[in-house]
Structure formats: structure tokens, C-alpha cells
Amino acid sequence: MLHPLSVGRRLLTLCAGLLFLTACAPNDIRVSGSAVTPLDTPLGVGTVLEIKVQDTSLADAKAQTLATLAIEAPEANQPFSLDVPAKTVDSRHRYSVSARIIHEGRLLFITDRHYPVLTAGQDRQLKLQLVAVKPVPPAELVPTRWILSQLQGEPLPALERQPFMQLNAEEGRVNGHSGCNAFAGSARLGTPALQFGALMGTRMMCDPATMQVEDRMLQLLNKVAAWRITAGQLTLLNDQGQALMRFSAPAAEQ
Length: 254
Known about the structure:
- It is a single chain.
- The protein has about 250 residues and is mostly beta strands.
- It contains 2 helices and 17 strands.
């Protein structure tokens, strides 16, 4: 059993090593910073800034939310702070902060990059940059689970598990499976624009054919700039309008 003084010292060490702490109560860790939009004026009545601290350790699972904050009528450069229960933080896990601004249910701005906090790899200053969201694309793109069928015009070989991806327009996220490993990351969706941020994935090894498909799929996702849907087929294009990948919707969703 640890002596109470030893426990207090360990908590103090944890608090001193964590970023953005303005105070450290025995049961909470305070995360602070500012959320910045491209605007020069406050966003007005009916607008809400939502900020979340999430556990993003598992690429193939939904991020677990540790703390949330909502600020009505935020400033263009809005300071914030929120408390994370210390008992929910595991030094082996990865945590990040995200933000979005909504107005009467319509998404206006989102963070489109990873802002690590709490454990290894955190930023020196927490300044959330929000970007404007383009109009939400047609319903058939979201939230269909798209099954990969071609890479640069070549049909996929037979694989034990079909690669797929699924987009979430509200959260600006993509998740999927590349044949061997699950992946997830940020996505900026528009019409017809589509761009993916850094993708994180699990690190299993599979047979060479599967790994080759996975490597090509992830490399091509980084080059995507636009999309189109024709007859139930989703094609992802580069910035020159060239087809990179083709997906099919499951029969039940077409």
C-alpha cells in the first residue's frame, strides 16, 4: 500500500508534467487554451462552440470522450478551460482536443488536425485553429460504408477482409479498414471537394498481397482531392481529376 505522502507526490509530479494546467485539483486536470476562427468578429447569438477531450488511442474504435465544454456566442478568438477527471487518464494512451462551432444545428467550423494533450507528444501551446466547413455533401456519400473495388483502375485481388471506408460529415472524420489494419483520421468534406488529414492505424502484419493493397490504399487516400458518385459507385479523384480509387456501396444501401 502506498503511503499518503507518496501518493500526493505522484499526483504532484503528474500535474507538473501535464500541459495547459492552470490548476490541478486532486481529482481533475485542467486543459486550457484558445479556439480561433478565421473571422474578426464574435459569431453571435445562437452559435455554440463545442470542445471535447477524447481518448484517441484505438484507431478502430469510437473515441471515448473524457470532458466536454459548450460556450454560447463565442468570440473569434475564444479562451477556454475544462477539467478532465484525473482517474480517466492513462499514461499509455493518446488524448486529443477537438472543437466545432454550430449554429442552430448547422456545422460552421471544425478543427481539421490532431491536437494532442495530457500525455507524450503534446503541443507546447494549445491553440485550436478552426476552419470553415463547406456545405455537407449529398446523403449518399455519408454515412454509406463504401467497399473498395479498384485501385487506379485495377480490380482488387481476393482478400480475407474487404477494405472499406466510412465518412462522418458531422464530426469531420473517416474510419475504415485497409485489408490488414483499421484506420481513422480527419476528413474535410465538401461538394465535390474531399481531403483526408493524417490517418492513424493499427500495426498488424498480414500476407504480402494484403499488405500491398493496404499500402496503395493509404498512399492514394493522401492524394484525394474530390469525389463523384455514379450509379452507386464512389470514385475518389486527385487534384487533376484522375481516378485514384473506386468503391461500391453494399447492395442494401444502394
